[in-house]
Amino acid sequence: MRIDKDLVAASATPLVLGILVEGESYGYAIGKRVHELSQGRLAWTDGMLYPLLHRLERLGYVDAAWQVSEQGRRRKHYAITGPGRDALGEQQRQWTAVTETLDRLWRDGPAPARAVSLGGAR
Amino acid sequence: MSLDQEIGRWRGHVERHRAISARDVDEMEAHLRDQVNDLVAVGLEDDEAFLVAVKRIGNLDAVSQEFAQEHTERLWKQLVTSEEPAYRPSADLWLTIALAIGAAVAVRLAVAVLNPERAALNAALLVLPFVTAYFLHKRRAAAVTVGAAVAAYAATAVLLNVYPFDVDGTTAPIAAIHAAVALWLLGVGIAYAGGRWRSDRRRMDFIRFAGEIVVYYALLALGGGVLVGLCAGAFEAAGVTIDDWLAQTVLPCGAAGAVVVAAWLVEAKQGVIENIAPVLTKVFTPLTVVMLVAVGGAFIASPGVLAVDRSLLLVMDLILVLVVGLVLYALSARERDEPPGIFDALQLGLVVVALLVDALVAVAMVSRVAEWGWSANRVTALGLNVVLLVNLVWSAWLSWGFLRHRHGLGRLERWQTSYLPVYAAWAVAVTVVVPPVFGFG
Q1: Domain ranges, ordered by start, for chain A
Q2: pLDDT grade, residue B241 (50/70/90)?
Q3: What is the pTM of this model?
Q4: Which of chain B's residues have a Cβ under 8 Å away from the Cβ of A73?
Q5: What is the ipTM of this complex?
Q6: Buried-most residue among B59, B196, B320, B397 (CB within 10 A)?
Q7: Domain locations in chain B as residue ranges
């Protein structure tokens, strides 16, 4: 199963901020963590992560600093800030409201499987 | 081909996208190498791993577009941004010429009809509306924005001309200067931002614009001055004196029209000046530090000056304006994600030295003000000093944090952009309150 592009985009900010709550991290590691958490279902274009991180930095949600790893590789590390935590809290409330709504609808409502339809009758 | 060579070629390819800076490519290269390492660890060959990793980075054009949207200051290099309609140089040029002529005619009429003091009082009202109109048109501003600009100009016009200023007093020039600053921020600024004045980005763009229009205006003034001088010399040699005509028509009209032309040049030639802005700040920051150290040294060597010269506070204010200008200009031209370097340390040094010298002057002034009494000049100068001081003290603190890697440059940027309304409020307050309090004298 692949998740729709718009959903991936919408969930990117809370995902990144949520991962940074676990501790400071860098682009590649964040991408790997998303892959792990979503069991490969959330497919990111790796390059898109960086403009997003820069946006969060500009908004003051994360702080960034260049660091050198033990293997001598220079990486830009990101850490969540106070305003970032507030923003994440707000996002969490919104997402919870959305998932609860859908959940309520789908738990009791009819299944979406189509009995007869134009596309399926071929 | 080795992996390093492959990555080198990939870098070259990515760097061709103007919206992706070298720093961003560094960041993405680290990502690419991490990915290759992991893939090699699970059994892929170097070149296979490289291909997979590049593929996962994604379509570079799309990535570049995302970067461009995030870093509009880089699009500043390019004329076309996605949200603006196609740029038509010729139409824009005609509009500029028309507005420049409009400003020149307005000023000439004022010189002809009004007495010199009244004309000087209204100077900003004669010129800035044309610059504002240029941006309102260019940004296709909404009716609300146009209305706000018109209201700002109308209110200022009424205020300046209803107040019964004493011709020889000091409150008239104070009101004129502060009205100009207020209109620059609330009229031109809001039009420049296309009404989106709450946006930090737009404010930063406006700061950048303000710095560059100064450079262009200085260049135009220099050229114009040479031309006027040559013209006067040539006519004088021919036995015709045209000094009056030059003084009453050419100079004021040229000075007014040049503001509109300079605004247009900044808009149209953004890429050219971009290379000058950082150079200018880099040249003048160390020079200003040297100057301030010399000034501070002189004050300490002969403290008597501090107690005697009443205009010192005004000079100090101008120096602080210069320092704030250098800080803003450097900030607006800086690549945001470069790590702190020697120049940032130098700039912090500049701010700290300025604060120390200002402390010397301010303490001396405040202690003497009781003796001299509160004049309009002194109140205004002291107030401006406080406004600038608050900005610089907090800027210094944020620069320090940035140098210590405690936070990014964004903090300093946001501090400066959110401070703009303070300047506007201060300018409005002085224009409205100071003249009546001091009896319009």
Answers
A1: 5-105
A2: confident
A3: 0.66
A4: 30, 33-34
A5: 0.81
A6: B320
A7: 3-70, 87-273, 275-408
